[in-house]
Write a structure and sequence with these properties.
Blueprint lengths: L15 H10 L8 H15 L5 E8 L2 E7 L2 H13 L3 H8 L3 E3 L9 H9 L4 E8 L5 E9 L2 H15 L19 H30 L3 H15 L3 H9 L4
Antiparallel strand pairs: 1-2, 1-5, 3-4, 4-5
Organism: Cryptosporangium minutisporangium
Keywords: Transcription, Transcription regulation
Protein name: GAF and ANTAR domain-containing protein
């Protein structure tokens, strides 16, 4: 049995990986297809990012960490080492809501169990990126594993810039001619837009909570129910709320 794959559209940063990240940001946390979206994003990361050899996705389910998606058993093994130790970059990214990079497995002193497993399996660098759904909290951490430290450093710089963290950013290019977009460009563009979606929904949640004098959780549920009743995406209801539409 073969699986048909398609080359990602990198013309404007609106390829399948970027679109999937944006779609996830507007998806209710209890949506039936949430895990399917996470699986698709992990696969697209490997397809779109040449620096990435393997990808996986970590989530916290019923107070236990689990790998929701993995493009190889190797990635799952590195995740398991972190779960066993109850520490590692994927757990930190999920808990903090910020990306966590390991630029060189050989020199990092943190997370010894993770480091030993990753190095034994021939990995040189990693990057864990929190993923957000409609409620606004991180629902998963996408873990990118690489055998190319230099290429992975560029991906990490793009991600840090997208989150507005760190001191470095992707190098600026001359504007005399538009350069071809890269997988890292697409990833960063998707993250920027996904974070913008999250911010819009959070603003709407805050508005509803203020008007109804209720908790943020109750306000989110209210928006979720209204979206379901109207048969429109959560983001649409959030946008209507911010525009003071019924």
């Amino acid at each position: 049995m073969t699986t048909e794959t398609h080359a990602p559209d990198r013309s404007s940063g609106s390829g399948p990986l970027a679109r999937s990240l944006v779609k996830l940001a507007g998806t209710p946390d209890d949506a039936s297809d949430l895990d399917a979206q996470l699986v698709a994003i992990a696969q697209l990361a490997v397809e779109c990012l040449p620096a990435v050899a393997y990808s996986s996705t970590t989530a916290l389910r019923e107070k236990a960490y689990t790998t929701v998606a993995a493009t190889s058993a190797l990635a799952a093994a590195v995740d398991d080492a972190q779960y066993d130790a109850r520490s590692g970059p994927c757990l930190e990214a999920l808990e903090s809501g910020a990306p966590v990079a390991v630029p060189d497995m050989a020199t990092t002193m943190q997370w010894p169990g993770f480091r030993r497993t990753a190095r034994r399996l021939g990995l040189d660098a990693s990057l864990s990126i929190p993923l957000f759904a409609g409620r606004g909290d991180a629902v998963a951490s996408m873990n990118l594993y690489s055998r190319d430290k230099t290429a992975m450093a560029d991906v990490a710089a793009h991600v840090r810039a997208a989150f507005g963290t760190g001191d470095s950013a992707p190098p600026k290019r001359r504007h005399t001619a538009r350069p071809p977009a890269t997988g890292a460009d697409e990833l960063a563009a998707g993250l920027v837009e996904a974070l913008a979606v999250r911010d819009r929904i959070q603003l709407a949640i805050g508005m509803v909570a203020g008007r109804a004098r209720c908790t943020a959780t109750d306000a989110y549920v209210s928006l979720r129910v209204r979206a379901a009743e109207a048969g429109v995406p959560l983001l649409e209801i959030a946008t209507r709320t911010l525009r003071r539409l019924p």
